[in-house]
Amino acid sequence: MKFVNEFRQRDLAQTLSAAIARAADTDRQYNLMEFCGGHTHAIFRYGVQDLMPENVRFVHGPGCPVCVLPIARIDNAIHLALEHDTILCIYGDLLRVPASKRQSLMKIKASGADVRMVYSTQDALRIARETPDRQVVFFAIGFETTTPATAVAIKQAAAERLDNFSVFCNHVLTPAAIQNILESPEVREIGSVSIDGFFGPSHVSSIIGSRPYEFFAEEFQRPVVIAGFEPLDVMQSALMLIRQLNEGRHEVENEYTRVVTRDGNVKAQALVAETFELRRSFEWRGLGLVPYSALQIKAEFAQHDAESRFNIPEVHATDVKGCECPSILRGAKRPTDCKLFGTVCTPDNPMGSCMVSSEGACAAYWSYGRFRENEANTKEAAA
Ligand code: SF4
User: Fold this and answer.
1) Where are the alpha helices (DSSP H) in the chain?
2) Is 9 strand, coil or helix?
3) Which atom of ligand 1 is nearest to the CA of 319?
4) What pLDDT score was predicted for residue 375?
5) What are the backbone angles phi and psi of residue 276, rounded to the nearest 5°?
6) What is the pLDDT of residue 369?
7) Do 75 and 317 form a contact (C-beta atoms < 8 A)?
8) What's the pLDDT score for residue 378?
9) For residue 211, what pLDDT is reported?
10) 67, 104, 324, 366: which to mutate for ligand 1, most atoms within 8 A of CB?
11) pLDDT at position 184, please?
12) Closest C-alpha residue for ligand 1 atom 7
């Protein structure tokens, strides 16, 4: 397959692995955060960590849209479905995310709530057209990649005067989250989280371009390399980060040139700017309240904004006791540091969002079983 097979070649991976081993200075550590859950899965699926020298470590970041959604917002969606009797349209990843009081969207669906899984905003619009006597709410989540499709749906609904269609908006912004991590006490003061450089996300950057990362590369003196999702993309980007760190540079470089440009998709950006504006603050699981890190629907489209149309009470919810998702999303812990991992919490019985989502770090550790190899090696060494 074009643009896939050539980025998975074993001999090239071995050549890159050798180049990384030569470039990595044995007197120092390289802690490289992959912001995006897609990169986390590529690293585990293809065993990229095993092709790195010991002093090059991947730190998993908060770039999984389902994982970073706080429980309170799932509670809000449940309220919309149950108390306002709406048809709640959601992406499948959200179904099993645990909410408060042992609830989930899947459980309320099983007990009769009208929760429907959709594959796109267009599915939700179609449902609204077909059921004019019911209110249809689309539960919009995601980073800059998915926001343009929500903008299109809102504009379409306005143009068609589809008054029974609204959006519960949870779109979040990547650069604000990266900045928040770099400003956190764990990174700046305590030093318990060490991040030397970032892999910039692939799909997000195809929309926003590489320009928005330039500010914090300079301000926080951390290099950023925008990386594709294939294993050779990740390895090449690791080499580029290592070289920057060796040379004391902190620039934004683009490995994913087959898709990402400096300015990004200008048409999509204009569409988003027409429909959304910045929220003053938004709660992220793991990061807490982050100023100007999310979007809300502009007042002129209030008719299609579920938060304007329905009375949604403010909810304060806490994570399941023992679940380490918040620390994992900040890069402070790994899934195997969680006592519930693989015992109480598995993909069949998830306790936290990082095990539910296909992009979550806990799901990656579990699905590709690499932690089992580590366990086996530790036991062997101890014997
Ligand atoms: S293993 Fe489960 S409980 Fe533990 S951090 Fe991951 S999702 Fe949360």
Assistant:
1) 10-23, 37-45, 71-83, 105-110, 121-130, 147-160, 174-183, 185-188, 202-208, 214-219, 231-246, 266-275, 306-309, 325-329, 353-356, 361-368, 370-382
2) coil
3) 8
4) 58
5) -120, 160
6) 76
7) yes
8) 54
9) 96
10) 324
11) 82
12) 352
Instruction: Give the distance, in angstroms, between the CA of residue 158 and the centroid of all CA atoms in the same chain.
Output: 29
Q: How confident is the model at residue 373 (pLDDT cuts 50, 70, 90)?
A: low
State in Å: Cα 354 to ligand 1 middle: 6
Using the predicted structure, report yes or no on whether residue 29 has a pLDDT greater than 80: yes
Q: Which residues line ligand 1 (CB under 6 A)?
A: 323-325, 328, 335, 338, 340-341, 345, 351-352, 354-355, 362
The average confidence (pLDDT) of the chain is: 92
User: How much of the chain exceeds pLDDT 70, in percent?
Assistant: 95
- The pLDDT of 134-161, averaged and rounded, is 97
State the distance from the centre of ligand 1 to the C-alpha of 358, rounded, in angstroms: 14
Give me 155's structure tokens: 């504009």
Task: Tell me the CA–centroid distance for residue 37 and ligand 1, in Å.
Answer: 15
Amino acid at 318: T
Give, in order, the Cα–Cα distances in Å from 268 to each of 116, 118, 123, 176, 325.
27, 22, 20, 19, 32
Contact 141, 63 (CB under 8 A): no
Whose alpha carbon is nearest atom 6 of ligand 1? 362
CA geometry: angle 158, 162, 163, nearest 5 deg: 95
pLDDT score at 348: 87
